[in-house]
Structure formats: C-alpha cells, structure tokens
C-alpha cells in the first residue's frame, strides 16, 4: 500500500460554530460524527424524551423538525423513531428555526453560504469548513461576520495553511475527500466559537497573520510553540515564572477567605496574608535548573504533515482543538537534545518510504502516530551544563502505531525495516547514538495519549550472540533504561513517569525532603510515587516509606529501584491513591492506637498484643514489657512514652535472618519497631525492613494489603507521619484530599505540583476552616460544569467533614522546564 498523499487529509479551512445550548439537540453530523462514543444514541433518546412534543401539536416544541436526522440519512432513510422523531427525515420535513435559520447541514442552509465540506469533532467548540474557491470563502466570511446563533456569536478564525495549500485553488489541488461534505459546523459549549478558514489559529491567538485566502504572511515557529520563553534571558524567564506563580498562589488566599464559613473566624494565615501582598504564605523564590539546554530526557514527537505538506516527525504548532495540525521538525527547540532530534529525523526519513500511512487526526485513521525518545544518563558527580548530552548513555525508543485493520505480514515487515532504519541511523551518526531498546506501542484512541496498559511490544535490535534466535524473537529482555538521581540508580520502563529534567528533579526532591521534617522516626507516605524517586531518595532520612502509585510498570520499577540501590525500608503499593490511602492510613494509625492502649504504670509500659498480632509477629509471650522515663513520655506522642525493649534482641536477630521472606517482613518491622526511636541507626533499619509489594490490580491490591498486613506494627515506632504528594496535572483526587484532611495524625504535608492551579484548588480544600455543620454535597448539581477549579474546591470544602484545617507555611518554585512557561511548585502545609 502506498503512503497516502497529503491531499487525502481533509483541508482544514475555517471553523464555524455556535454553542450547544442554542441548539441543544443538534443531531447533525456535527453532533453525531463518526467518533460519537457509544451511548450517544441513548443520550439522544433521552434528549428526545425531554423534548417530546405533543404529537397533536408538534409545533408546540419550537425546535420540532428544525434539524435533520443524521440516523435517517446515514441509515438510508430509516430511523427507529419513525414519525415521532423530533428531527426531520429529509429536506421536505425540515422546518425553519425560531431564529429564522436553517439546519446548517441542510441544502437550504447551504444555498445561503456555499462551501465544500466541513469537519468537527464532538465536544470541540471549533469546526473546520472548506470552500471550493477563494470566492466562496470570501462570500462566507461576509455572510458569517457578525452573525449569531441564539444569543451567542460566531467567530471566524484562520487555520495555518500548509504550504502545499498555498496559492493553489482548492478545487483543483484538493479534491473532496469524500466525507462530511456540505455541512457547516455547529457546536461549542461555552459560547463563542470560531470558524476556521484555510489556516490555523495560534495558541496565543495574536501572533498569527495567516490569511483567509491561503497565503501566510507569518506563522509561529516550532521554537515559539514549544519553548515560548526561549527568546528571553534565563534570569528573566525565572522572574516571569515567579511572578506568575505568585498571582496563582494569591487565589488560594482569596478563595479560602471566600469559602470560610459564616461565624468561623478567618485563620491566622489569611489575616496575615495582607502583610505579604495577599500571598497565602511566603514564596521563597524559584530554584533554577542546573541545566538549561537539551535537558529533556523524554520527548514525544508527533507524526503528521508539515506546513510544506511533507511527512514530518516533530512538534505540532498548536493543538488540534485550535485547528492546528501542522507538525514541524524539532529544530531550534533548546530543550530538546540533539540525540532526540537525530532520532526524530531518522524516523522521518523512514516514513517517507513506508508502505503504511501516517496518522490522520481528522479521520482517526492511519498507522504511524508518535515517536517517544527516552534518554538515560550515566552517573555523574559534576554537572557539565554546557554539554549535558555527553552523559547520555542509554536511549529507549517507543513508536506509537495503530495496527487495527492493517495486514499483519505488512506490519511485521515494516517493523523489521523500522528496526533496521533506527539501528543503521544510530550507527551512522557521528558520534554514534546510544540505542538500548525499541518498543512499539499499539494504540487506537483519538489522541496520542495512550492508556498505561496499551499493548507494548519490543522489537529486537540485533541478536545477542549468546541468545538463541527463538528467545530473541520472544523479546524476553525488559525494555528499560536507567538514570541517576541523588546518586541512586533508577530503572525506567517505557511508560513509567520520570521527571524530564533529572538534574533539576534532584533539587526538587531534596527541597521536599528538607521541608518534610524527616527523621529516623518518620513514616513517609510518597503519594503518586511513580518509579519511587521521592521515597527512595529520601529513604535514608526516614524510618519507612510507603509509596502509592497506580501505574503497574512504575511500581515494578520502584521495587527494582529499591532493590538495586539496596534500600529496604520502603513499601510500594500499586493502586489508585483514592482507593487505598484511607485504608493505608487507617492501617498505620490503627497500629498507633494500639500503642495508645499501652498502660503506663510507674514508668513501665505493658504492650498487649492482639492474637492477630501475636500470630503475625510471633511474639510468643503476647506481652512485651517496656519501660519509659517521664522525659521520654513527653517526647513520644504516639504511646505517651518512648518504648524501650530489653528482651527481644534474640527475636530481632531471628527476624533479621528471615528478612528475605516477605511473609516475615511485617514481623521484622514489629521487632524493629520496639526499638527506641533513634536507638537503631537508619542503616540498621534498612537492613531489617523489607515491605514491598509487587504490582497487582489496583482493586485486589488493597484487599491483599488488608489481609496480609492487617495491622502493620512498624508504625508504632514512628512519631512523625508525613506525606509528600506529587500528583499529575489535575491534582489529587477529592477522596485523597478528604483522607489527608480528616486524618488528625497527619500533621505535615509537602505538596509538589507541576500545575500550580490544581495545587491551589487542592489547598483550598485542605486549608479552609470547617463549618460548624457540614453541608451535604449535591450530586445532582450540574452547575459544576461551568465552575473553575477553585470554585469547585470551595464547593467541596463546604461538605468536608469537620476537621482541623492545614495552613500554608511556605512555598518555592522549582524550574524543571527552562524556556517554557511551566514550572514545579512546592508548598509546605502544616497543622
Ligand atoms: C507527576 S508524576 C510524579 C511521579 C513521581 N513522584 C516522580 O517524581 O517521579 C504523577 C504520578 O502519579 C501517578 N498517578 C496518577 N494518578 C494517580 C492516582 N489516582 N493514584 C496514584 N497514582 C496516580 C502517575 O502514574 C504518575 O506516576
């Protein structure tokens, strides 16, 4: 099969839109496109029920038969609703709308504004309209300008034309692609939407000068799209990020003030915020990245067509939602390494001759979708910021494809050619490029963001001399690369999260550790732990780490990382934090309460173990005698007395010897836990504690945790329970926030965020004082759809169970992403 000509891509021209609410039941292809998810029909039926007219007087419903029925048209004149369908079965039945317009997909509407074809994806506020000629386009512009649908106005905007579309009459250069013809696009859920004519809108919306007749005077470069701050000195970039983070942080104060319930006094931190310009706490500054150029250890390159119409591997100039589909080579993007650029270029060259098509974002068809280049560095004590690439020792390539409906033999042969192309390209490069593993990810979804469980297949790069052919073909080798943070080695599998700027991440983690107030008697929860980086780099500073992560490969990496670095005081749980955090905290806190049950008499404490503990921990006597001094009593908040055990040395030794046996690991903890805090060195602790769990299905994981480690006595030795959370861009799940907020023993929380907006939203819930009487959440309230993240958080804060709020203590930005607007934010919350 030949690669399709770029002209097969529908020509993005101009978007024409209106909000959904003006035409709530729009059944045209705009609303029911090929990508209409399952369940849409049902939705439509529901809509229909809502609007069911009186059959004797259909015109009582103003929208009755004002839109064409797409089912009727698609199914060649049949529709299950028959004559009761509220949509028009054909042009004859079609009625004019109350605003005197016609269904824009109808012939009558088209008579008004001629056009060639249109395209819109469900849920998008923009659509694309193509025209037969410049004249047609001009007419449309004139007629559309200033038009409104309902009470919302139509906006017309350009999309960036690809150069092969420039100065060529669309009628001759771009034959109709045979789909979605003759339909203007109607959509939008938030009011104004744009009509895109032969060009693409700029992300910023103000730099583009592309014109409607297809000649572009200026479009944004890939450098500007990917690294918009690259034109500034690095010190100015830092200043800009600091200022913008300050503005975002101020929202926390404003929103928490707003959300503070009537009759409850404003917390001290809000009152004091006036002294620091409205900030919720001091922003200590911004930590610069140790490396400014070529720092990204992971780049995801899209496959598509350039402005010149050439198959290209690189970055999109904007996003699809904005009508931008052009992909440009990653040249001059200072955050990308030359190694990554070279691999993009090798792949691009390969695609020019491939027999399989590149992915078409409009039609959701094609084969080649994306190339991910992941780099692993050598350990290094001194940072060569001038030449960070000198340290790159390993490269993992992951090519995303959509194999559906392609011939297996053809696919296999293309994969073979791909392997050869990468291997030859890497070897031919001067100096040669590292190439550790090549993986193919099969993904059918609309966007390139594949689910964590999308099938992966490793392509053998060459046969190991001592590996039999069969084995090599079975891809037995684990496709992983390695990187180093804080002198620890990290194993990274293809889909596991790993900070893209490892050297700056090192700074981030150590700052988080410094703020978390760690010590040998600290139990650290590393929530959203990925490959275990935070917990493992801080493990030597705490008694124990419990990491929670939903990505099974990342958890498996975390286990391996603990092992290769000889760290034994970590337990990793593979589950969604919202599913297990409640139980995990309960598990540890329950154990704490057991200690509270200790009876202190004359400085001696008797710890009564439950039968379960006895069985689990093999403390045969069932009673352990401990003694404590008055002074120690004051120091130990858990048992009101620091426990000292004199008679279990032997027991401990036995347990240490069994450290390899996971069944015994909690017993190790038990024995160790009866040590006086600070008595055993942390190293010693590392030698005795092994409590890690392999990746399992998130749901079964929790059960198994609960069953196998009903009460983990290890917690008894911890005075200090701290959480470091590092959630994805969306922030923490509301359940996790609630669990953290309502657990009174969790006094300190370090929040690391790659999106300060979601940090603020989560902090509103964590820091707003409780009302005397908690409001019940209204599940039926659909107003949330239009709420900001902060508004939603304020709303949720009202139904937060009565609990002591946290207060923001300090914050610091850490720049992991030079040349871009992004930056990490760390905030310490205490109560
Ligand atoms: C920003 S990354 C941080 C990873 C890690 N702390 C690090 O620095 O490498 C967020 C991590 O949260 C995980 N994640 C996302 N949603 C989650 C959830 N609901 N429960 C647990 N982990 C989640 C992701 O898989 C990802 O590994």
Automatic annotation (TrEMBL):
Biased amino acid composition, Polar residues: 1-25, 170-180
Composition bias type Basic and acidic residues, residue spans: 38-52
A GO term for molecular function: zinc ion binding
PROSITE patterns given in the database record: SAM_MT_RNA_M5U (PS51687), TRMA_1 (PS01230), ZF_C3H1 (PS50103)
PANTHER family: TRNA (URACIL-5-)-METHYLTRANSFERASE, TRNA (URACIL-5-)-METHYLTRANSFERASE HOMOLOG A
Active site (record annotation): 754 (nucleophile), 754
Disordered: region residues: 1-63, 170-190, 659-684
Superkingdom of the organism of origin: Eukaryota
InterPro entries: Methyltranfer_dom, MeTrfase_TrmA_AS, Nucleotide-bd_a/b_plait_sf, RBD_domain_sf, RRM_dom, SAM-dependent_MTases_sf, TRM2_met, U5_MeTrfase_fam
Family to which the UniProt record says this protein belongs: Belongs to the class I-like SAM-binding methyltransferase superfamily. RNA M5U methyltransferase family.
CDD domains, per the entry: AdoMet_MTases, RRM_SF
Residue ranges of every copy of the C3H1-type domain listed in the record: 63-92
Biological process according to GO: methylation; RNA processing
Pfam family membership, one: Methyltransf_31
Protein name: C3H1-type domain-containing protein
